[in-house]
Structures are given as structure tokens and as C-alpha cells.
Amino acid sequence: MQKGPETKSGTVLHGHCLCGAVKVEITDPKGPAIACHCTQCRRQSGNYIVSTYHPNETVTITGAQHLKWFHSSPDRPRIRRGFCATCGSNMFWECEEGWISVNSGCLETPTGLTTAYHIYCADKGDYYEIADGLPQYAKDDYPSD
Ligand SMILES: [Zn+2]
Ligand SMILES: [Zn+2]
Questions:
Q1: 43 Cα–ligand 2 center, Å
Q2: Does the domain formed by 12-123 have CATH 2.170.150.70?
């Protein structure tokens, strides 16, 4: 996942799950937002996931005891997806120590975030088109930082 530049210094984004048990704050959010169309994201979210990636120290989770973590990639044990155990809201993704991905759908708008590109387009559902003109990458062959 791309580690982008800070979008706005001093900005704090707030978000929460559908039932409100889990809250998240992101200080100085990093951009851009990335849309992932992989089969895991689609199955877990119901469609696809748009998220941003942040250093742990800039993300505060309240009510973390209500989160359940699912290890979605047995061959990569560090990867896990966090969702509210009560309402099922799909909020977090982790793949490397010290960083956490926050799903943009749980954030209060306006976020000030902009989606930069789509990844895992080879795995996207056949019931929608990606027609926003942004770059599309077949798998994880997106630009790195
Ligand atoms: Zn909830
Ligand atoms: Zn994905």
C-alpha cells in the first residue's frame, strides 16, 4: 500500500462503526485513498474497499475491545482485518508492523481525501464498472513510494 504524503497538517479525521462501539481518529491523515477490488475486500465489505494507510501513532482507536480481527491470509500471518464484533463494520486492515489501514467508509465527511487509483482490478466483480478515469492496476502492481 502506498504511503503517501500528509494531505493536511493539523487535520484530525473522525470515524466510527455503524453501532458506534468502535471509534477512530486519524491525526494528520496520509493520502491518497486507494480502492481495492480484491476478492477478500469484496467479500468482507460487500463490494470494494477504499482506504488510507497510516503510521500507528497517528491512529487512535477507542472501543478496540469491540473489534474482532480476522487473519485473512494464512500464508501471511501479519495480515489481519478488523471489524466491529457487534455491527460488523469493516474498519481496519494491517499488513506490516507499525502501520494500519483505515477504511474510508467509516470516516465522517468531508474527509478531504481523494482516491488515487484502483488495485486488484483483475479480481473486481462483474456487476460494476470502474469509470472514474483513475489508473487501474490488475493486481498489486501499483506505484510504491
Ligand atoms: Zn459497531
Ligand atoms: Zn483488497
A1: 9
A2: yes
Question: Rounded distance, CA 107 to CA 125, Å?
Answer: 24
Q: How far is the CA of 12 from the centre of ligand 1 (A)?
A: 21
Tell me the domain boundaries of the chain. Answer: 12-123
pLDDT tens digits, one per residue of 93-126: 998 899 999 999 999 999 999 999 999 999 999 9
What is the per-residue pLDDT across 62-88, written as a single tens digit (0 to 9) for each? 999 999 999 998 899 899 999 999 999
- Distance between Cα 21 and ligand 1 center (Å): 5
Range 120-141 average pLDDT: 96
- The pTM is what? 0.90
